[in-house]
């Protein structure tokens, strides 16, 4: 029978945000803000998430919120990266809908071949975007408003008014 583990002791009074700092030392010098922003943009460009950008630049989210409030060029660059991501996603969705992809087929744990698979949902979305007059969802509401209210609510609207 093993003995229960002791919980970690609470942090001591000398523990700081920089644990590798020697006594009396200075915290590491931060890179210039422009360099931090470039690192943020490199991380943000990967998947357009705030978390990726912050991890790449090693900054807190509040710093990015401040940059967004104070720097219009920062916001423009961020929006440009979002547009580029949207273009990449469009290209990939078109490839999956039109060209498809090879899905591996396994039998008893052994790869025995591939099957070409297409995304019908993405194809439908592309068609409704490119030819809305032909592929959009058509909903026709015919009749008077009073008749519709009578059917849905179960009473005559003119009696209430």
Q: Judging from the principal axes of the Cα atoms, what is the shape?
A: extended
The end-to-end distance, rounded to whole angstroms, is 80 Å
Question: Which segments are poorly predicted (pLDDT under 50) over 5 or more consecutive residues?
Answer: none
The computed structural class is mainly alpha
Helix percentage range = 55-70%
What is the overall pLDDT average?
82
Biggest sheet, spatial arrangement of strands: 1-2
How many distinct beta strands?
2
Order of helices and strands: HHHHEEHHHH
Tell me the number of helical segments per DSSP (H or I, 4 or more residues long). 8
How would you characterize the overall build of this protein?
- It is a single chain.
- The protein has 161 residues and is mostly helical.
- The chain has a domain of 102 residues.
- Strands 1-2 form a two-stranded antiparallel sheet.
- The radius of gyration is 29 Å and the shape is extended.
- The chain starts with 32 loop residues before the first helix and ends with a helix.
Short description:
With 161 residues, the chain is mainly alpha-helical. The chain contains eight helices and two strands, in the order ααααββαααα. Helix 1 (33-47) packs parallel to helix 4.
């Amino acid at each position: 029978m093993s003995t229960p583990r002791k919980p970690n002791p609470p942090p001591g009074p000398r523990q700081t945000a920089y644990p590798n700092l020697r006594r009396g030392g200075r915290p590491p010098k931060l890179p210039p803000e422009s360099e931090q922003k470039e690192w943020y943009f490199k991380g943000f460009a990967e998947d357009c998430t705030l978390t990726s950008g912050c991890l790449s630049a090693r900054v807190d989210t509040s710093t990015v919120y401040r940059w967004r409030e104070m720097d219009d060029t920062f916001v423009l660059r961020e929006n440009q990266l979002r547009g580029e991501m949207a273009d990449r996603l469009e290209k990939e969705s078109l490839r999956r809908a039109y060209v498809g992809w090879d899905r591996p087929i396994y039998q008893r744990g052994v790869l025995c071949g591939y099957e070409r698979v297409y995304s019908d949902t993405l194809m439908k979305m592309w068609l409704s975007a490119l030819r809305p007059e032909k592929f959009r969802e058509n909903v026709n509401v015919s009749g008077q408003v009073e008749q519709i209210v009578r059917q849905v609510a179960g009473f005559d609207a003119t009696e209430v008014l």
